[in-house]
Amino acid sequence: MKQEQQWSSKIGFILAAAGSAIGLGAIWKFPYVMATSGGGAFFLIFLLFTIFIGLPLLLAELIIGRSTGKDAIRAYKTIAPTGYWHLLGYLGTATSFIIFSFYSVIGGWILLYFGRSLTGSLLHHNLVFSDLFKEITANPLAVTSAQLLFILITIYVVAKGVSTGIEKASQFMMPALFILFLVLVVRSLTLEGASEGVRYFLMPDFNKLTKDAVIYAMGQSFFCLSIGVSVMVTYSSYLDKRETLTKSSISIVSLNLLTTILAGFAIFPAVFSFGMEPTAGPGLLFVVLPSIFEQMAFGSVFLVIFMALFLFATLSSAFSLLEIIVAVIVKGDASKRKKYSWIVGFCVFLVGIPCSLSFGPMSDMTLFGKTFFDLADYLASYILLPIGVFLISIFVGYRFPRARLVEELCKESAWWRKGTVYYVMLLRYIIPIVVIIVFLNIFGVL
Which stretches are transmembrane (predicted)? Predict the structure, then answer.
């Protein structure tokens, strides 16, 4: 059955897929790790892993989706009608649900900060920013309301469909994101002492390139491209059969790398210019950067730009997380999309409430020594994602029909007929070993 939903253009697909991949981790965590793990040396290692690990995995998911034109579960079932490979689709759907449940909490925080930056109140208060962050995240009514609003925005876009909802939103948000980035980069690079930040970010220092940094680069090469949860299987199922997957894959990877570099140029020159300490995670976005903008000329304007940028990046990823779940339920029937977008969205909100309260009323409630927020993050990021990546690599390497794989790849170029042999070897042997190494490092075995 032909997929009822389709991208209206190749650029629309690329922007939506890149938006899915360009999440908060690529903007606030990766630049920090790069800067503290050898700078340019780390980026070189990451670039090699992205080309030889991340890109082949991304292409694998695109091949699965485009060749079948079906949602994650039915795509695997179509290719492998016998056996249990369709459970890989269920795994991706469940992982997306879990990620969305805590990701929407962060989206809610960004909405709260964005609203305060618009009114100017974020830079005019009597608390230091670390205390302000604790106060905001500990307010149960504020965080749950903001989380709900973030989910409602996501539902509204996904319910409108692929081309009229996700694609249109991405065609506005992604160019806007890069324009906002360029504005911030120009401002950051023109600050006094900005060169120290650039040097800290990019200067190759192989002495800082530790084993942990190399393994992180290996893991990040597939984590930062939204692979492992079959999101790209779903997105590529809406892609026209005539489109070239290799070019699309390279475009998605390139946009992701560009975003990472722009984030570093926007953040570190400003951090060093004002003598602040660079940190990863929420501390950078909600504590360090507002402190910098407070001291900067026209800081309130640039703070609004920065919060809008983060909001766009967070929403574009949220669209894909909700889309894979909805696509599995509606099974290509567009008439059911609106209804189930709202149902699934509200289910995510209900499940995510304990995550949003993990910094307030439920902060003392733990399971396996972790708050509900940390547990959801750990389960999705460190267990389910690596398993998904490993199984997708095995599936395409061993179970996907070789003739069909050659057919899909040879639409790009006749050269791929020979390149398929090396591609399959990567998927069968190299990538599974890399994933196992990353997995063992997560649990402290290595």
Answer: 12-30, 42-64, 85-116, 136-159, 171-194, 214-238, 250-276, 296-328, 340-359, 379-400, 421-443
State how far Cα 70 lies from the chain centre: 22
Structure tokens at 192: 């006094």
Query: Which amino acid, 145?
Result: S
- pLDDT, position 411: 65
Distances (CA, A) of 427 to 52, 201, 396, 416: 10, 33, 7, 15
Q: Which of 107, 112, 95 is nearest to 154 (CA)?
A: 107
Burial of 91: CB neighbours in 10 Å, binned 0-12, 13-18, 19+:
buried
- Give the 3-state DSSP-derived string for 158-202, with helices as H, strands as E and coil as C: HHCCHHHHHHHHHHHHHHHHHHHHHHHHHHHHCCCCHHHHHHHHH
The residue with tokens 């599995």 is: 328
Q: Which residues of 318-347 are buried (b: 16+ CB within 10 A; e: fewer)?
A: bbbbbbbbbbbbbebeeeebbebbbebbee
* Amino acid, single-letter form, for residue 427: L
Question: Are the C-beta atoms of residues 431 and 396 closer than 8 Å to each other?
Answer: no
User: Is the model more confident about 376 or about 224?
Assistant: 376
Which of the 8 DSSP states describes residue 363? Answer: T
Return d(Cα 98, Cα 383) in angstroms, integer. Answer: 12
Distance of alpha carbon 428 from alpha carbon 26, whole angstroms: 27
- pLDDT value at residue 442: 74
Handedness of CA 319, 320, 322, 324 (dihedral sign): positive
pLDDT at 215: 81
Domain range list for the chain? 10-377
Average pLDDT over residues 208-225: 80
Confidence of residue 127 (pLDDT cuts 50, 70, 90): low
User: Under a CB-based contact definition with an 8 Å cutoff, are residues 147 and 108 in contact?
Assistant: yes
CATH class as words, domain 10-377: mainly alpha
Residue pair 386/227 in contact by the 8 Å Cβ criterion: no
Query: If 0-12 CB within 10 Å is exposed, 13-18 middle and 19+ buried, where does residue 421 land?
Result: exposed
Model confidence at 84, pLDDT cuts 50, 70, 90, reads very high
Report the b/e string of 270-295 with b at 16+ CB within 10 A.
bbbbbebebebebbbbbbbbbbbbbe
Say how far apart CA 225 and CA 202 lie, in whole Å. 22
Token digits for 422?
A: 């090396």
d(CA 202, CA 427): 31
As a three-state string, the secondary structure of 252-306 is HHHHHHHHHHHHHHHHHHHHHHCCCCCCCCHHHHHHHHHHHHHHCCCHHHHHHHH
